[in-house]
Design goal:
The chain is of the alpha/beta class and about 260 residues long. Helices cover about 45% and strands about 10% of the residues.
């Protein structure tokens, strides 16, 4: 225990609690954010970094290298910093079943919902345009006071893929800009394995598309595939989240 010996305007306190230190040293710290400020903060301070998935494995590798280098520049061990992009999996026993399931859920999404989400993340009123129009010219990401990562992703997709407002809205409603996979357990495992083995991530923040069935589908069809490939544990390896993520316990001075 380290005495804090705080003496401030309103109170004085020696500081140490009369309880044992947490087995984790401190809770695992996560941060999310694709902006320059968000990435800089994560590299300095946290254990794990949530991010929207870049559009390709190659782009994911570039972000992975960038963040590991940023962490090292602060004198931290890059291996003790986990990069975990989001993934939205629609999975079933076969690809056909997964596609049918995805189509069913897509029918439930009102076009207005997707366009409304675009308005929020682009900070621009798109209801004044036809849903079949392309996005209007938008200011640069530096002018955005909000989620810069999603803004940049959507603006780039509109520019390079010529998607209409309606198409962008449907794309965004399905996965919020995260990696999106539809297929059998083996096919979804193929995608996750590629990202992991090719150095684009240390793991994933799995964002189930619906509850509770989305969890059961993933556990029943994807988890066994990853276990057979030696890419996912078959039992818990410790008693804390820090141990499960393979993160070291910080020293008292760092905690």
């Amino acid at each position: 225990m380290r005495p804090v010996n705080h003496e401030g305007r309103y109170y004085r306190v020696k500081g140490p609690l009369n309880i044992p230190r947490s087995p984790q040293g401190r809770p695992v710290l996560f941060a999310a954010g694709a902006s320059e400020a968000g990435k800089a903060y994560a590299a300095r301070n946290v254990d794990a970094f949530f991010t929207i998935a870049p559009p390709t494995v190659q782009a994911g590798q570039a972000l992975y290298r960038e963040m590991k280098q940023r962490v090292a520049s602060h004198g931290r061990d890059p291996a003790a910093f986990k990069i975990m992009p989001g993934v939205v999996p629609f999975v079933a026993a076969t690809r056909a079943e997964a596609e049918d399931k995805f189509a069913h859920f897509q029918e439930l999404v009102l076009p207005e919902l997707g366009i409304g989400q675009l308005c929020r993340y682009l900070n621009h009123d798109l209801t004044q345009y036809s849903p079949d129009d392309l996005l209007p010219d938008l200011p640069g990401v530096e002018a955005v006071n909000g989620e810069k990562g999603r803004y940049q992703l959507l603006a780039e997709m509109s520019r390079t893929e010529k998607l209409t407002i309606k198409e962008l809205g449907r794309y965004f409603a399905r996965g919020q800009g995260h990696l999106f996979v539809v297929g059998s357990g083996s096919e979804v495992a193929d995608t996750l394995s590629e990202w992991f083995l090719d150095g684009a991530c240390d793991g994933f923040n799995v964002k189930f598309p619906y509850f509770p069935g989305g969890i059961a589908d993933f556990v029943d069809h994807v988890t066994p595939e990853l276990q057979q490939r030696g890419l996912f544990r078959t039992d818990y390896i410790g008693s804390t989240l820090r141990e499960h993520l393979g993160l070291p316990v910080p020293t008292p001075a760092a905690a």
